[in-house]
Structure formats: structure tokens, C-alpha cells
Queue: 2 jobs
Job 1
Amino acid sequence: MGKKWIYRMGAFLLPALLLLLDILPCHAAQIGFGAVVESTEEAPFITSVSISPGTTVVSKDTKCSFTAYVAGVNNYSREVVWSVSGQKSQSTFIDANGILNVASDETSSTMVVKAVSRQDSNYSAEALVSVRETTYYLQLKASPENGGNVYGSGAVREGGSAVISAMPNEGFFFDSWVLDGNRVSQDSRYTVNNMRGDATYVAEFKPVICRINVNVNDSSGGTATESRDINYGESMTLEAWAKEGYQFDGWTENGKTVSKDSRMSLDRITQSRTFTAVFSRKNDQPRTYTITAATSSGNGTITPAGKSTVKEGEGILYTMTPGSGYAVSNVYVDGKPVGWMNSFNFTDVRENHTISVDFAESPVKDKNSAATAERPAQTDGKEEQKEDMADKDQKTDQNKKEEKEDQNDDKDKNGDKTTGEDDGGRKQESGMTGTLKYLDVSVEEAERLVKGNNDAELMIGAMESGDLQLAVHNDFSSEKQEISYYNFEAAVDCFLSGEEKMELLQGSAPVAINLYIEDADDRQTAQVQKEFAEKKLPGMNIGQYFEVSLTASKKGETQTISELSSALKVVIEVPEHLKAENRRFYVLRLHTKEDGSREFAQLSDEDDNPDTITFSTDKFSPYAIAYVDEQTAPGISGKGPGDRRFRNAAGIVIVLLALAVTVTGVLYIAGKRRR
């Protein structure tokens, strides 16, 4: 070979070798060169990035430190760029040192912290951060302690609300709710909104003050005990002193004589009352009053007819006699209907009165059997009053007088405001049935409480009487769960109007509300399972599907409730196959709205018991139990270094071979020249 060819070969060899560096590395392993030569001049590269901790739970207004571990070769950079996503507060951030600052106003339940290699952005790692829901304690107190009872204390989640109520004891009335010395409401049932810290609400109760007013009919005739205020349940004594030339005739209340004694004791006073001491001149003619009697037609008579004069404090008996073929239809006293009766007795007369009677044609023609025939319908029938009047007709004047004195004595002892006849009338007219009868609450009082949205205690009474039935059917509970009305209050208010609540309280329309928590693992549709899987956070696993539904029944009809204005609290036991150490549970909800769209929500476990999951929800639809194993590191992303290592080693081998060929050629040429 000539020198020119040797020089030409050397001139083209080096460029050719440089070109082969990018072509031959991927084939070098197939040539049979198995040795790998490490070069001190190899470029640094990253092999992996990981974060510790991989999952964690933090509280609001706290900090959490993360550490990034970067692996690589040849003096690589260990620096990373930190970022956080999923936060909702602008004050939540992570600094360059990997310290996550969670703002106090953070509302997101989960966030993702990410570390990216500064040298090679293809390598990164993520950590799942769960924000612990802050709860505050709502404490209730009664002042004074014996003034009444308070309801609604307990733990409340941050930003949540709670309904508190107060019920005064006998002798007290509710005055107001007080927070930190400031009056916040005068309603016994009050909603605390937007809880942002522990709070103590004090229910202020005040003793009922009864006013005993004492008057005299004639100040020149005598004096009496002065009017005064007295505490509920206490007693006092009234006294009257007649002046010279006058005599004490008795104590009256609401125009009726309640005692003839100048010294009268009032025991256990429970309401304000007004009494008048009556004096009169000695040997004076008694005062008289006029009672006018009439009939509306000539189909019967009333005896005595026309005007009758009655001495003050005495009475008179009237008898109604229907004509042939007629019966008493109604009797009116002072213009007010009192029902049909054959007689009426005025007692203790102290003012003018009128009495009139209507007669109606009777289908019974036999006069002897007319007394047993069916009476015409009354405008305002009162059987008790009729029987009472009939009994009085059979008593002598002496018996009447003794009865009146006995009644007065009873009223002195019991502090009654009205006579026995009036009490009987009120009881008959109150119409209390069902829960109202069970609670001894009048219809009028119940209507006032329902209208004022203060009916919680009435509904609790309805639960006790059986008119309101609340039940929880829980496939995830081995024991019967305790039912709290306040947990179902929103459901009751959603399902029942004020009028329907009154029907329930009177026992005419019982209501049943049922909450169902049912295992749906074997019957959940593939579409629902797919949506849960797509919308859950990375790193979460779905362990069980279930459904929550709410139904309400009344008058034989059942209605399904899909959404409430406030949340119910639901407690389920963790299925045995899902229990594990360091496992944190969540509840996922997929709710179908009225427009057909789906709303996804992730609910946190509100209790610290590892065997139960507690969550609050206002929507009833498919649910899933999800979990995160806190010891499991999140997935590490990035390309593997195997290809790069192989290519670098093959390139080094080719370069060394080329260099050996070049040196051999140069030495060969040099030797030729010396020869």
C-alpha cells in the first residue's frame, strides 16, 4: 500500500468514526463486545424522584414539611421544584423548601403536592394531602340552672350550623339566648350559623311574676290588702276591713263571688289575678238586677216570661216548654248560644241578663215520647252543661246555696279562676286529641308554636306518643341506632306543612319517616361504578358501594325525598373486609340533580373511630366507601435510565476502537518513514 493511500485513510477515518458514534451505539451489543467501560467524564443524569410522606392529613392554619429524594448518576442535581394543586384558598402555598402552608380559610378537602427534578423535568413525584375538617364544640347552659332545660349542644363542623332550643321549667319563662354577654335572640329555638370557633350559649330564664290586683267596690266602705307582685307558686293572704256603718259582703273575681270571709288565703299562685272587696251599708236595701226572658216564636213558652227582678248574689230558674209537635232547638244567654235544654239556672247574679229560646218542629208527635226523641241539631251543643243544668234543676234552694259555698271553698284552695261549670266547658271545647292530649297542650298553643317554627318539643312528644315514627334501616350497623329528632328535623319540615303538622299532633294523620342505608355492592350499575372510578382522586381505592334513601309516609301514601335543606348525620360500620392499619376512609357521593346532571362530592370521615365512618349529607343517592392507605407511597413518574446507560457504554467502546485504529495507522506510517 502506498503512502498516499495511508494518508488518505487516516484523513477520512476520524470523520467516519465521529459519524458512527450516532449510528452504531444501538447495534454495539450485537457485535459481541460485552465489556462496559466507565468514563470519568460521563454526563450526570437523574434516575428517580420520590416524596416523603406520600400521604398525610393536615389541619387548617398549620404547616407540613415534605422531603424530596432525588436519585441519579455522576454529580447530578438534587434540587426540585415544589408545587401544590387542588387548594381553594389563595393563602395556601408550598415554599421552595417543601413546607406546605395550609391557610385557616382553606375549604378544599384534598390537595396534591408535587416535586419535579430541576435538572430533568421528566422525573417527578406526588403526595396526597387530606385536609382535616375542623370541628368546634357548642356548649349550652341554663341560667339559673333550675330555670329550664337546653337542647342541641355538641360538635359542629367549621362553617356548619346547629339548632339549639330551650324549654322553661314550671314557674319560669324563656327570656333570651346570650353569647359572650350579648343577647343574640329572644326565640327559644335558635339556629347558630357559620361556626368558626368554640362557643357557649346561655339560655336566660326568668321567674314568672304574678300580679295580684286588689280593688274595692267603694273606697268609703272599707279597705283591703294592697296589690303586689308575687313569684310563681308562692302564696299570700288577702284581708278586707269594713269601715263604720258598712259591712263586708265578700271577695269577687271576674264578677263572681269567690269567698265570703274577710280573710282569704291564696295558695300556690300560678297566674295574675284580680280580686274586688265588696262593701255595702248596713240595713240598706240590697241591689237588684233584671233578667229578661223571651221566645222567638209562639211554638213554646219560657217560665217566668218577660222581666224578672233578682237580688244581688241570688239566682233564678227558667223552664222551657215546647208546644205540641215542637222541641227546644237552642237557648241563648246574653245573646250567646248555649245549646238545647229544658231549663237554665242563673246563679250569683251581679248584672242584668237576657235569655231567649228557639223552638223547631219535631218529627215526634207523641208528647209523652217527645222527651226521649232525638233533638234537632244544635249550634253549639254542650252535653256536660245540659246535664249540669238538669242536676241543678232538681236541687232545692238550700242545696244550691251549699253547693255554691263548697265551690267557693274549692276555688280558694286551688286558685281556680272560673267555676266548675266553666272548667268543664273549656275541657269539652279544647278538642285535645292524639299528641296534644298526651302533652296536655291546647290546639291554640300548638298552632302558635307551629306557626312560629318552635315545634321541636311538640314533635318529640309526637315520637313518644307514636304519631310520628322515625326509623333508620342500616345494613352497615349490627346494633339498633338511637334516633334523634333533631337529626330528622329537616326531613319533617320538608315533608309536612304547618297544617299537616297540626293533623299529626291531633292524631288524625300519623307520619312515618324512614332512612335506608343499603348495601349496593352486588347491584350497582356499571355506569355508576365507572363514574365513581373516573372522578375519585388518584391514589384512592373504592371498597364498597351503597345507597342512602329517605322516604316519608302519611295517609297511605309514600314519598321519596331526594334532597333536604340541611344535612342528616349518617353513621356506618366499616365492613370487615376493608379494615386495615393506617387506612383512611372517605365517602364518595354521586347525586343526580333535577336537570339530569350528576354532582360528585367527596365527604370526609367525621369521627376518629377506626371501626365506623360518620358523614353528613343532604342528598340521597348512590354512595361509595373509598380509602387511602397512608403507608403506600404515590406512584413515581419518569423515564427509566436503562436505554441511556446502554447507549453511553456502546459509544465509549466504539470511540476506543477507533482511537486504537488511528494510533496503529500513525505508528505504521512513522515506521515506514524511518526505513
Note: The chain has a mean pLDDT of 80.
Job 2
Amino acid sequence: MADNSNTRNFRKLLSEIIDTEKTYVKNLEVLSSRYLDPLSTVTFLTTLEITQLSESLREILKVQRSFLKRLERVIEEHSKVFSSEREDLVRNTVLAVGDVFLFSADQFKIYSSFCALYSRVQDILNSGENEPLRHFLESKNETKEHCNSLESFIIQPIQRILKYPLFLRQMAGLTLEKSEEHRHICKACDVMQCVANHINEMQKLSAEFGESFRSLSAQDLGVRDLWAERPDRQHSADNIPVIKAGYCVKEGGKMKSWKRRYFVLNEYGLFYFTSEERRKTTFRNARESIFYTSAGSMEHYKSGYCTKQGGKWKNWLSRYFVVNQDGIMYFTSEQSIEALGVIPKNSVNGVQEISPSQFDRDNVFEIHTCCRTYYLQCENHDDLCEWVSAIRRLLPHPKIQLNVGELCTYSAVHWCNIRDIVGKKAHACEIATSVFVFRSALAIISRYKQNTKEDRDGATGSTGSSGPQVADLFRSIIPADDILVTEETDDMQDRYTWSVTQSYLDDLPPRTYKFCTSSKEIRSRFVTAIQDINQRRT
């Protein structure tokens, strides 16, 4: 330190860091216990994002408690710095503080998950139409002051992690420019700025690919599902490699008449069409669910009568509902043997209670699916809670969670054998493919390049905007213990190839993806990251 004023300012800064850190950890505990943990169990919210945010906060709290203990240990071991003017004491304290930040820098990267979820959760919590949520938040803020509101607490992790480089920059300004302590604290400042930059990068990545990551996390890892891997509904039926195809005569489901149909068997299942020509423009999945047992005799999580709003006429009619491991079915009555409607398990995206003012009816909840929203009314609130709990058992509990906080590496790649997997009409030059290596899995996401997408959409009025509005053409997830990675030897200039093979799945043969990157360094990064996650799993 050059003079006494710098020493005094250093003491003030050190006190500010430790005092604000104690307050911050206390506020994290309040945010978790008062708001996020209770919100993870309520009936009036679809809880997946809230639960993820709560889990992320628990990890942050664990890191911050450890960080605070290290800072307190430094203050305890160098307590004389607050009463002595000796330069060696100040220098050693600065070095010790820098060490604490350098040690914790990698751990602070877990903030990426929280920050990526923040904007999505904000949209959910700021919904003015959710009256039960508004009453809940008001009841938790007894003082009615903004500083005690959820909005005030939930933004603090983002503010705090971006504050650390500023603290260190101030500390560096109080040291002699060519001194050892100045270089050390500048190094800590640079590392923490890299952490902040990493978090900003992960937020942008989550905004662009977050919806794709959530869809991949919800996939059943034991099968290859057509609409899960190929969400682009304009994807023509003849653009998938075929195992066998041809005409058969099929019995009708309702009229029992026999008609000639064109069948296609591929790795996703058995499909049928009116004719071979019709196959090029439409899909018809032959694996439809028809039930020939009475509704009351089915094994179920819950069953009973609810009043349901019609899909077309919006009238409210009593229906008998059954929730079981396959999904939700509803019937005219308990004695009915054929379902009026079926909601498959994999199409249920969420369920939550809604405000009575929306339909001027009490005890109404909504079921979100990929196609529509169903509205059901129960006799009382206890019954509503039972239905919501039963339906939540259908929601995906992924074995693998694609979380940007666990992202090891990612990059855009050239997919060399895309036509072997996506189909003969897929051209790699028109498609942008990105590969993401997480600690638990590898994800592949392909989208049409923006200029190509605009040409294809043409008259449909596509906006051509970038980012989250670009739909996935193909996406797949491969668990870490199912991956075999190989470096290829047929390298060319600016084309360094490598392949990923997924082991046997659902009695289907292995699937090999062949990629190439523009540099050896990128390929090496991918190969090393995949080998590392394989070793962790074993």
C-alpha cells in the first residue's frame, strides 16, 4: 500500500465484502425457505422450472457458505490488519483474499444454471392472471416492502456474482501497480471476470437452445420417438430411412371394413397411409390406443368424475376420468368401455390450479399438453389437490437433466452422414448442427440455416428472425454410458472428422453420427470431454 489512506480504504473494502457476504448468504436462506421450497409443492403452478431453480439455489447456497467460511478464516488469521499499519500484513491479507476467489472461481460457474432459469421463472411468477400465486406472494411478504418481496430476493444471486470482479478491481486499485499483491489480485479479478463472461454466454445459449434442452431432458431414453427426435411437423414421411414398405389390407377401427393401405416400417415404428403417393405429404401413426375394458375396472392412480370444458363448443359436461401409468382417459360414465378421449403420458406438459375468476367457477385446474389445454372442475379443493398430484406423476422425471451449469463443451459442427439418419432430402449444407457435451449426456440439435429456412417458408410469412424462434429439424440425446467416440483418420484441410456411436437401443442397431470440425483443437476438445464423462460414469 502506498499510503495510510489506501490502507484505511482497504480495511473498509474488506469489511464491506465480508459484511455484504454474510447478508447475502442469509438472504439466500430466506429465498429458499420462504419462497422457492413452498412454491415447489403448490397446486397453482406448473412446478418444473421452480423446482429446478430451487435445486440450483441449494447448490449456490452450499458454495456460498463454503466461500464465506474461507473469507472469515482469512479475516481471523489476518485480524491485525485492522489495527496495524505494517505493509507486510496488508500484503499477506490481499494475497489471501485473492487465493479465496481463485479457489472458488470454478465453483461459481454453477450460477449459470440459476441465471439461465431466472428469466423463464420471472415470466411465470409475473403472470397477473394467477390469483392464487399473487395471494401466496402477498402472504409471504408481511411487511409489504419491496426489499422483502420475492422479486427483490430472486435477483440477488445475479447481482452478487457480477459484483465480485468490481470488488477485486477496487482492491487492485489500492495496491502498488508493480507489486506482487497487485499482480495476484488482478489475476483473481481476471478469473472472476471470466466467470461472469461464462455466465453471460450460458444465458445466451439457454435463450437459444433452452427449449430444445428441456424437450431432450423429457425424452424416454429407452426408445427412439419420432416426434421427439423430429419435431418439425412439415418433415415429409418419405424423408426417413425405411426398413420395409408395401401395401397391406387393414381392418378399420370403427366400421370394421377392410381397406388397402400403404404401410411403412422404420426405426420409429409402423405407419400407414392411404397410398404410396400420400406417404410423401402426411403421417398417420398406426399405434393408436383403443380400450375395450370398462373404465371402472382399469388399474389407476386416480379415477372419478370431473366436469370438463368441451374442446369445440366450450360447454361443461360431466365425464369419468382415469389417470394411470399410460396417461389420462375420459369416458361418458364409469361403465363405458370405449374412451371418448385419450391424453398420452408423453404429451402431458404440466398441470396446475387456476383462478376461479377465469371461468367464474371454483376448484378448476388445467392440463397442458402439446396440442391443447384441458380445463376440469372438481367437487371440492381436496379433490382438486388429489387430481393434480395424480397427474403430476405422469410428468417426466428425467434421469438426465441437460443443465447449462453442467455443460463441458459445445460447438457447431458439420454433420457428414446426416442423410443416413435424417433422410435423403436432408442436405448438410442447408442445415446447422450443434453438438453439446454435458456431464451426463451428449445432445445433437439440427436446424435449417436461417437463409434456407426463409427460402423454404417463403409464402408462409416467416419472420426470418434468429434465436429461439428457429425450430429444430432433428434433436437427439445420448446418455454418457452409451457413447463410443472415435477420431477418424481421413482428415482434409479444415475438415477434421470424428464419430459418435450410440449403442443398441430398443432392439435397434447402433447408430453412428459422423461429424467434422474446422480445427484439430475443437475435435480434440470434444473427444477429451466425451472420454472424461465416460470415465466419470464408470
Note: Residues 404-537 form a domain with the PH-domain like fold (CATH 2.30.29.30).
